[in-house]
Amino acid sequence: MALLEPVYEIVDPDLYERGGMPHDRFRAMRERAPVYRHHGHPDFWAVTRYEDVVHVSRHPELFSSHERLALFPEVEPEARALQQMMMLNQDPPDHTRKRSIVNRGFTPRAINALTDHIRDICQDLVGEAAGRARAGEEIDFVHEIAAPLPLYVICELLGAPVEDRDKIFDWSNKLIGGDDPELQSDPEVGAQAATELYSYANELAARRREDPRDDIVTRLLRPGPDGSELSGNEFELFILLLSVAGNETTRNAASGGMLALFEHPDQWARLLADPSLLPRAVDEIVRWVTPVNMFRRTAMQDTELGGQEIAAGDKVVVFYGSANRDGEVFTDPDTFDVGRDPNPHIGFGGGGPHFCLGAHLARLELTVLFQTLLDTMSTIKLTGNVRRLRSSFINGIKEMPVRLEPHS
Ligand code: HEM
């Protein structure tokens, strides 16, 4: 008699809301069913081992990105059409052309030039929080520090004036929220926010065409040495992608990293004693939290993966959250170690053509933020319940009340 195959539920958002990622389940899947057919609604292959996630990411000719965000059939057709025009959801050669243009704006030099601005933003946010702490108040770390930081940085990167921050914050909040019903806006509200953001992107482009500067927008608008440039529509879509891809991810890395440090006070003490560990700590935070848990690909032809026969057209979902705890690659994968070295995590993607464009920027933001917190605070205490995002896609935190104690 054939043994019944175990059933692994892996996308139910309730699993994630209760306790973060279901790491015990991921471990069982990596060991017993690393490429697992998830039958039902939705129907897909779940890929949980590091090696297989990397293989899928690096072979866009076998695994297309064109439907990467569409795992749940509920995605509205208009939203899907819009998504498919973005670089994130495209394959070579369309993706290659756009990526080589936008890469010009994201060179290490261009990003490093933002360091002083990022430091000012962190000092303002943390300074304000310290002032409130001195007055005996507690704050919500997500709303007052983790969420504004990436948003303000994107405004800076776009050259948007400070007085426009609130409206850009509002538009991007209406466009994100994972699959959490509490945060999901009416599709019409999202579409309206996208339209407003587009016309804002056009204004920015017009301003920079008239008054070019040594900034990222100017570089994106200028034709490259081979004459290639983004069309007006491609520029709008890219700004929309940045506001979504660069915001929620970094926000959740910052708050998830803070939570990991609460849960491991010895690691906070290690950082206070030796801040030179910070760059490693930031990568460990991205591994530990894995703010983007998964993305979908579509098999382009019949192929084999982890011993399974995958048919052309099958949905294949890579779970970065699982791969980042794979004991075949990481020593003591369930230990949070701010000095971890080497740390070949794939929180920014498995190294293929879509590898996160903002990885260097995100690392810089997180390093400066935690540096500022260490410089300003002797202790940070969690004072209430952490409310998590109800999403299997984004590993996020909605609220985290804390009390800060500045150095005297
Ligand atoms: C792509 C994660 C921050 C912009 C991605 C991908 C992941 C990711 C997993 C897909 C990789 C793949 O499919 O192989 C993260 C995490 C972040 C972060 C965990 C923060 C800790 C940012 C920031 C920006 C950004 C700050 C920009 C301001 C992008 C863009 C893409 C991307 C534009 C699409 C690249 C392409 O299609 O070629 N990111 N990201 N990300 N990310 Fe990030």
UniProtKB/TrEMBL annotation:
SUPFAM superfamilies: Cytochrome P450
Family membership: Belongs to the cytochrome P450 family.
Keywords for this protein: Heme, Iron, Metal-binding, Monooxygenase, Oxidoreductase
Taxonomic source organism: Actinomadura craniellae
Listed GO MF terms: cholest-4-en-3-one 26-monooxygenase activity; heme binding; iron ion binding; steroid hydroxylase activity
Name of this protein: Cytochrome P450
Keyword Heme applies: yes
GO terms of biological process kind: cholesterol catabolic process
Keyword Metal-binding among UniProt keywords: yes
